[in-house]
Structures are given as C-alpha cells and as structure tokens.
Amino acid sequence: MSHEPDLAAFRTELRRFIREQLPPDIKATVRAGRQVSLAQFLRWHALLAAQGWLVPHWPREHGGQGWSVAQRLVFDEETCTADCPELNSITFDMIGPTLIRYGSRAQQARHLPPIAAGTQWWCQGYSEPDAGSDLASLRARARRQGGHYVVTGSKIWTSYAQYADWMFCLVRTDGEVKPQEGISFLLIDMRSPGIAVRPIVGIHGWSVFNEVFFDAVQVPVENLVGAENQGWSIAKSLLEFERLKLARIGENKRRAARAREIGWREIENGEPLMRRPWFRRRYADLQMRLIALEANSARFIERSRTGQPIGAEVSMLKLRGSQLIQAWEDLAVDALGPASLPYSGAALVGDSDLPTPDLAPTASSRRFLSRGFTIAGGSSEIQHNILAKQVLGL
Predict the structure, then answer these.
(1) 3-state helix, strand and coil shares in percent for the chain, rounded to the nearest 5
(2) 26, 134, 150, 249: which has the fewest Cβ within 10 Å?
(3) Could you tell me which of 133, 141, 128 has the C-alpha nearest to residue 210?
(4) Quick one: residue 172, left, alpha or beta (phi over 0 = left, psi -120 to 50 = alpha)?
C-alpha cells in the first residue's frame, strides 16, 4: 500500500497558509528583491514554527513532520513563487540534520529545540582566505587546553554571520597528518570573547558575506561534534542534506514570474516587451531550460523516493540551476534598461519605508548578487570536474 502524500492537496494547503499568514511587508520586501531584515526573518520563522513547518523534514522525534523529499521541494517551490523569504539552509538543512546524525544527546538537547522554534541562527565556518575550493588546506587552529579548545585564525565569505548566534566550524587540530585527517568540527558561540565579525559589502550593496576573526577564542570540549580529527567526514556528509535542492526550481520560477511581469509592463515601440521578438525569444529559451531542469530534477526525486542512490550526476542540477538564475536576472536588467542602473542603498533594505515594490531599483543588485550562485555550494568548475571524472570517466 502506498503512503505517498497527496501533493495536490498539499499544495492547496500551503497556498492557503501563505495567503493568510505571510505578512504584507515581508511579501513586498521579497517581491521587490530587497534584503530581508533579521527582524522580518524571525517573524516568518515564528509563523512557520507555530504551524510545524519550519523544520518539517526533520524526524518527528526531533520536532519535524517527517516530510518526503517531494513534499520538501513542493514547499520550497510554493514559498518561493509566493514571495516568502528563503529560509536559512545553513541552520535548518545543514546543522540541524548534522546534529541529529552526529551530535551528542547534550548537543541535541541544547540546540535542536531553539533551531526548530526559529530562535537560533547559525552560520558556516568553512572557507578561509586561502582555503575555499581547496578546503582541506584550512589553517584556523584549535589547540586543546584542559576543558577547552583555543581557536585562532579566520574565516571568510561567512553568510549572515552578522545575524548568527552560533557557528559550526572546521578547525585544524593536528598539523602533522594528511590535511583531511587533522580537521575537527566545532560548535562555536558567536558571543564568545575574541570573536570579531566584519561584514563584506558586495558590489550588489547587500551585506551577505562576512569575515570572522578568532583571537584565542575558548570553546568548551563538549562542543566538539564527533571525534577529534574526524571532522572532514562530517563536513562532507553535511553537504548531502541539500543536494536535491540545488536545482533551485522555486527560485528560478520566482525570477521567471518577475521577468514575465516586466515583459508585460515595459513598453518598446508602442507594445509590451512580451510581444517584441528579442524578449520573447530569450524568455521562451529560459522557460524551456527551466522545464527541462524541473523534469531532470524529478528523476532524482524519484530515485530518492525509491531508495536508489542519487549519484554524482546530481551535480548537473546545481550547475544548470545556478546558471539559469543568472540568465533570468540578466534578462530583467536588459528589459528594464537604464531604469535598472541607478544605485539606491535605501531600496535594498527590507524594512525601509519605500511604498510600492518597484523592481527597477534593485535589478542590478539582484544580478550582481546572482553571480555568486555559480560559486557558492561548489563552483561551476568543480561541478564540471565531478561530472567529467565521476560520471563520464574522463
């Protein structure tokens, strides 16, 4: 007997909830492509947590709903296309499941309830100035002193560290062995003495990334996840939790809707862009690529549903999904023309007093922001290498 959920009914329930619960100011912020503020994020977290939908993919014994992969992806698609804030996958999709799998009971008891309630924000301490794609070369050190590790070094490109209460961090605890064998996985309280966070304001004007500096920061030994020097295997398995989401179907559909709105609103030679050959050609091409991406993603969802290994070819989802997002943003800027060029810092702030969600003032910022999509989560070059070596055997 099949126990698969009725996805059509599930979509209807999701849409009703979003229609009734999503605060108008948050919807307008996302709709206009502005940066969602911390206060807005936390309000949305509280609404989802009250419904039981903030961590629904977690096991029930840890506060989740035990949703299937298909339900998760439907949720992502519906929330994206309805202009809900994108949830912090580092908190809900990475560290939460990692603690469920590898954390001690004390670590689970301390962190899982506040994560599930939406009151604890996490950041990821992996990349360093000279250790990005070659993560095993990281140099942040953790030296054991009695009941603490003393952490010294720095991290960079740390997403939303300015919001974070905690960081899960890779540190070197043994410099005399192979690089991957001397790394440990620590949980670090971001309020600890000796931590400094320096935001990096990108060309897009958003404050997403940060530098984080550790000056002899003391971390209790009980914050070590797993065994000392075994952090590399945990770090690799952590990335498995988000592989099927890397196609970014919902985010692509959100951008497709924006492009369609612009196409009907903007006028060229007396008619909407949607009737102009150059815009229609590009819009149709991107729509076909999105349809193909969604169909490809469905194959992997079915594999997961039936217990089959997903395989290394899932890298094509990340590769195509991130490139397609950039193409949608390029089309929006080209369609809006000179109106998209002026920079306004106020237009990027989520809780500003700007009235209508005009797409033009944030269009260039959104395009610049999307350039990072083919870098974060494994660059396109790395995805090509994975496909070449592990799928094509080159």
Answers:
(1) 55, 15, 30
(2) 134
(3) 128
(4) beta
Residues of the chain scoring pLDDT < 50: 1-2, 352-356
Q: How many angstroms separate the CA atoms of 169 and 154, rounded? A: 10
Instruction: Measure the CA–CA gap between 141 and 315, rounded to whole angstroms.
Output: 31
Task: Give the per-residue pLDDT at 235.
Answer: 87
Instruction: From 163, 169, 262, select the one nearest 206 (Cα to Cα).
Output: 163
Res 175: pLDDT: 86
Q: Could you give all domains of the chain from N- to C-terminal order, each with its CATH number?
A: 7-87 (1.10.540.10), 122-229 (2.40.110.10), 246-391 (1.20.140.10)
Are 125 and 155 in contact, with CB atoms under 8 Å apart?
Answer: yes
Active site residue 222: no
The rounded distance, in Å, linking the Cα atoms of 344 and 259 is 21
- Write the CB contacts of 298 (distance below 8 Å, at least 6 apart in sequence): none
Instruction: Give the burial string for 322-357 (b: 16+ CB within 10 Å, else e).
Output: bbbbbbbbebbbbbbeeebeeeeeebbbbebebeeb
Which one of the listed residues 181, 211, 228, 242 is annotated catalytic?
242
List the alpha helices (DSSP H) in the chain.
7-21, 24-31, 38-51, 69-81, 89, 96-102, 105-117, 231-238, 249-265, 277-305, 315-336, 360-370, 380-386
Q: Letter for the amino acid at 87?
A: L
Q: What is the amino acid identity at position 362? A: T
pLDDT at 31: 87
H or E element: which one contains 217?
strand 207-220
H-helix or E-strand spanning residue 209: strand 207-220
The whole-number pLDDT of residue 354 equals 44
